[in-house]
Amino acid sequence: MNEEIIIAGFGGQGVLSMGMTLAYSGMVEGKEVVWMPSYGPEMRGGTANCTVIVSDNKVSSPIINDYDAAIILNQPSMDKFESAVKPGGVLLYEANNIINPPTRTDISVFEIPANMEAVNLQNKKTMNMIMLGSYLGVKPIIPIDSILKALTQVLPERHHHLIPLNEKALRRGMELSKLPTEKEEA
Predict the structure, then answer these.
(1) What is each CA distance from 107 to 76, 85, 99, 122, 173, in whole angstroms?
(2) What element of type H or E holds 3?
(3) How far apart (Å, rounded) are the C-alpha atoms in residues 141 and 78?
(4) Under 8 Å between Cβ of 98 and 78
(5) Helical pair 144-154 and 163-178, crossing angle rounded to 10 deg
(6) What DSSP character marks residue 35?
(7) What sign does the CA torsion over 101, 115, 131, 171 have?
(8) How many structural domains comprise the chain?
(9) Distance separating alpha carbons of residues 125 and 67, to the nearest angstrom
(10) What's the CATH code of the domain at 21?
(11) Nearest to 3 by CA among 60, 67, 50
(12) What's 159's DSSP letter?
């Protein structure tokens, strides 16, 4: 297995921590991993993205231009990274933040109402874990137990009491990725 993922959105949406959690969980599983963040000088509101590679083999280069999967949280990131998903790849996007949805027909596209679900969980900060759970529902490259172990490394100890809520968000995201979209229902 060799999975190359781009996660992109605004600063403050949990883009980097989602990628770091995925990378740490790969280490828990004994995989080779890369986590390469990229962000502007703004802390919140600026763009942020990270590349995550989870592989059974040594990673030859962390610099890649085409991805197996994209998790997109805002329109500028959609505009930038939709074309970077390999044909046959997967693109998941947050439904409320995208004005112009993806138009490609050579990839699998999943519209995830993560913001709305985070409000339902009474914690807007769980949106990133809902998106990560949705990705894992589509591509189960890492078991949820390893994600939860990784959260103990990624989250400061003062936030460990939130791990059960994050687990709930991950599981809800997995459920959401299995639901038919409006296009499939029509």
Answers:
(1) 19, 8, 19, 33, 20
(2) strand 2-10
(3) 23
(4) yes
(5) 140
(6) E
(7) negative
(8) 1
(9) 26
(10) 3.40.920.10
(11) 67
(12) G
Distance, CA of 82 to CA of 30 (rounded, Å):
30
Q: What is the pLDDT along the chain (186 residues), one digit of tens a residue?
A: 999 999 999 988 989 999 999 999 999 999 999 999 987 765 566 789 999 999 999 998 888 999 999 999 999 999 999 999 999 999 999 999 999 999 999 999 999 999 999 999 999 999 999 999 999 999 999 999 999 999 999 899 999 999 999 999 999 999 999 866 544 444
Residue with tokens 């044909």: 87
Q: Which two tokens stand for residue 72?
A: 């997109």
- Please tell me whether residue 114 adopts helix, strand or coil conformation: helix
Count of residues for the chain?
186
Residue that is written with structure tokens 């004005």 in the block: 99
The two structure tokens encoding residue 13: 């949406």
First vs last C-alpha separation in the chain = 35
Residues forming a β-bridge with 48: 9, 39
Range of the domain at 15: 2-185
Report the alpha-carbon distance of residue 180 to residue 10 in Å, rounded: 27
- Tokens representing residue 106 in the block: 């050579």
Q: Quick one: angle between helices 15-28 and 144-154, nearest 10?
A: 120
